């Protein structure tokens, strides 16, 4: 069945020409014959431009939000879903018939759904590398799964340890290590978070939210020690489908 009507969707971010979302939704619209539906990148250097996009883009029905605007976009929204409010980060925006902007977080859903099949009984604690918007959805998902977590940041704080504090004891205690930083994203594919990779074992899961490249240096280093590895592609697909559901309800 052909679905005919003009609807626009897009991705809000900075330096996002590499983006997964545009390709994913463009293919979906072609395959499922959504005629008149388009998906575009709104690549902006600062969040203050956001209201102009909303004002000047006709037929806009929904947006995905990526780095670095998952937290910065919140003050511009009219309403947040309960989960987005708890998480404190938004990666999906629905534009209602009345033109109101409502923020959701589908990252946590995508992460939870993609991590769950990997979990075994001994996976009780996780280290989250990074404290940006993406890390918040990860933390919320871990809470829902009953997994304790600790954030790792460049500077230690009340809510995070710093990278220099990670040692053999840490790796024994935390058997899931999640990279929620952009370190290692294309084109800087040789970069990786500064952790002692030799401490990974086959008991560990190394999960990288990055999907480009498919195997980051972080994942390569962990795999070399027989750790189970997973990149962020499935998470992205799951969160995108959840966003699509939200835009259409």
Sheet with most strands: strand arrangement: 2-1-3-5-6-4
Distance N to C terminus = 19 Å
Q: Give the overall pLDDT as a whole number.
A: 96
Proportion of residues in helical segments:
25-40%
Secondary-structure element pattern, one letter each:
EHEHEEHEEHEHEEHEEHEH
Query: Could you give a short account of the major beta sheet?
Result: 6 strands, mixed
Secondary-structure-derived class: alpha/beta
Q: Given the C-alpha coordinates, what overall shape results?
A: elongated
Specify Rg, calculated over alpha carbons: 19 Å
Instruction: Determine the number of helices (DSSP H or I, runs of at least 4 residues).
Output: 8
Name the poorly predicted regions: none
| Beta-strand content estimate | 15-25%
Number of strands: 12
Pathway: Metabolic intermediate biosynthesis; chorismate biosynthesis; chorismate from D-erythrose 4-phosphate and phosphoenolpyruvate: step 4/7
Pfam family, one: Shikimate_dh_N
Protein name: Shikimate dehydrogenase
Organism: Flavobacterium magnesitis
Q: Could you characterize the architecture of this molecule?
A:
Helices cover 30% and strands 25% of the residues. The chain is of the alpha/beta class and 249 residues long. The strands form 2 sheets. The protein has a 6-stranded mixed sheet. The chain has a 6-stranded parallel sheet with strand order 9-8-7-10-11-12, sandwiched between helices. Strand 11 (205-208), helix 7 and strand 12 form a beta-alpha-beta unit. Helix 4 packs across helix 5 and helix 4 (107-115) packs across helix 8 (233-247). The longest helix has 15 residues, at 233-247. The chain is elongated, with a radius of gyration of 19 Å. The two termini are 19 Å apart.
């Amino acid at each position: 069945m052909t679905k005919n009507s003009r609807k626009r969707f897009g991705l809000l971010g900075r330096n996002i020409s590499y983006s997964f979302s545009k390709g994913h939704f463009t293919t979906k619209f072609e395959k499922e014959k959504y005629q008149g539906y388009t998906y575009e990148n709104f690549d902006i250097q600062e969040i203050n431009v956001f209201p102009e996009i909303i004002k000047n883009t006709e037929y806009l029905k929904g947006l995905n939000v990526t780095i670095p605007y998952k937290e910065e976009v919140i003050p511009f929204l009219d309403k947040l879903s309960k989960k987005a409010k708890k998480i404190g980060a938004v990666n999906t925006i629905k534009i209602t018939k009345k033109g109101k902007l409502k923020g959701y977080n589908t990252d946590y859903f995508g992460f939870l759904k993609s991590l769950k099949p990997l979990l075994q009984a001994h996976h009780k604690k996780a280290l989250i590398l990074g404290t940006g918007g993406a890390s918040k959805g990860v933390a919320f998902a871990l809470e829902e799964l009953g997994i304790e977590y600790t954030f790792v940041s460049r500077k230690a704080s009340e809510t995070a340890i710093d990278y220099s504090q990670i040692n053999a004891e840490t790796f024994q205690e935390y058997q899931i290590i999640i990279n929620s930083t952009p370190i290692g994203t294309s084109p800087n594919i040789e970069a990786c978070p500064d952790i002692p990779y030799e401490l990974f074992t086959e008991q560990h899961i190394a999960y990288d939210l990055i999907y480009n490249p498919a195997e980051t240096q972080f994942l390569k280093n962990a795999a070399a020690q027989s750790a189970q590895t997973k990149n962020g592609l499935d998470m992205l697909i799951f969160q995108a489908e959840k966003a699509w559901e939200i835009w259409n309800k």
